[in-house]
Amino acid sequence: MKKLNVKKLIIAAASAAAICLGANELIAAAKPKAEPADCIRSYIVGEYNGFVACYDIGTEEPFLITQRKVSELKPLDELLLANGVEVKGARAMSRALEDLCS
Prior knowledge:
By secondary structure, the chain is of the alpha+beta class. Helix content is 44%, strand content 23%. The protein is built from four helices and four strands; from the N terminus they run H-H-E-E-E-H-E-H. Strands 3-2-1-4 form a four-stranded antiparallel β-sheet. The protein is globular, with a radius of gyration of 14 Å.
């Protein structure tokens, strides 16, 4: 099975979105900004149509859908994603995706 490179997937998704939405706005939004500890954004790592996905808090549509099938994960990870896992900050989200998708 080919190993999924999450960083390349994120870059590819950002590139495709930049073409569709306008590069300047997307690049500005995608650049990680230093935020005070009390202002760090939270995300939900969960499931969307059988795949690992990331959501902004309070949204129903994910902003990122990976190619990793939830059914291929360990049973505990499958259960956690069914309920969604809140992570604080972009780095924590990236680490969670790397753990799940590698």
